[in-house]
Amino acid sequence: MLQIDRLSHSFKNGSEVTAVLRDISFRVHKGQMVALLGSSGSGKSTLLHLMAGLMKPTEGDILIAGHNIVSMSENRLAEFRRHHIGFIFQAYELLANLTVRENIELPLVFQSVQPSVRRKKALALLEQVGIPEKAELFPSQLSGGQQQRVSIARSLITEPSVIFADEPTGNLDTRTEEEILAILKELNKALDTTFVIVTHEREVAAQTEHILSLRDGYLITERQGFAEASLTGGPAIAIT
Ligand code: ADP
Ligand code: MG
């Protein structure tokens, strides 16, 4: 479902070049829920943004459902992202002037899906994330945990191949964090959607099936906390 091959990325500021990701390869299979664990500054968000097609890597390939997003044209990539990629942000990023239901429907508005069809799907997802009664409220009338539930529903409405979540529980207290992780796990099982969850917290990563650990831009793979391999490079590591 997701294949990363020899990916490297550097940021340039004038003559200064900062290498952030170094020769990273791995695979995530359909329906897996994987954590990308690393301390602040280790390159997690950069890797997630590259995989979501928000920027182009300096080197390497990113295949999603068999399509190489690195070699796609801008237009094709924008279209591909609308159909295949979901994103969940730490700060929810809901639109304040739209209701909960309208926020969830929004990705389908961009696909010109009929209002009645959009509405039905949005309400079904709202039910799945456990807050069906909030449909006609505005984001400011919801708690942080409830807003993240809305954001999760929005990410799922296009039935994407993979969902990337950047520190999805980073703004939440421990109890709410547990609730959100439970919802993500449930949806992963029920819908067979592939999830990549970025976190700097080992307890959050331990909730997932597999852990990919980043340190200073290098990938160190782990499986349920057992260190398996050290530096990557060479063939992709299949996580099974
Ligand atoms: P994480 O999400 O793991 O905290 P990031 O991917 O945000 O890490 O950042 C990794 C490194 O890349 C950091 O040293 C950061 O300063 C640097 N970095 C991130 N974005 C940029 C940018 N646009 N320009 C220059 N350096 C950047
Ligand atoms: Mg980050």
From TrEMBL:
Keywords: ATP-binding, Nucleotide-binding, Transport
Keyword Nucleotidyltransferase listed: no
Membrane spanning residue stretches: none
Boundaries of every ABC transporter domain copy: 2-239
Pfam families, sorted: ABC_tran
One Gene Ontology CC term in the entry: plasma membrane
PROSITE patterns per record: ABC_TRANSPORTER_1 (PS00211), ABC_TRANSPORTER_2 (PS50893)
GO molecular function: ATP binding; ATP hydrolysis activity; transmembrane transporter activity
Record protein name field: ABC transporter ATP-binding protein
Organism per entry: Paenibacillus arenilitoris
